[in-house]
Amino acid sequence: MIGYVTLGTNDMDRAAAFYDVLLKEFNCKRTWETDRFIAWSASEQGQLLLVIKPFNHEPATVGNGTMVALAATSKAQVDAVHARALELGGSDEGAVGPRGDGFYAGYFRDLDGHKLAVYFIS
Q: Rounded CA gap, 83 and 77, in Å?
């Protein structure tokens, strides 16, 4: 079980604006915020997604091979989240569709270049 995921950013305001809108698709809201990070969750004790300024004060970079997967409750939610990410300026990393027996997913990169997936298993 994943408790939280952090994604580095060099532009907190831009990243926050992207995730404020995108994560509404999951009924998430900001639950914790400091001058170094912002966290979103669907509940006070739920899993968190955070954008963060790196602890070592070096520029944030994208991890090669790193991907965060967001679990959807339906194929329609996969479609909506993927479309919303692209509307917000994210880039397509794999169109929405079936990816094997019962696995439906779409892939995108956020404004900092982090790769994310949104998926539904039926």
A: 10
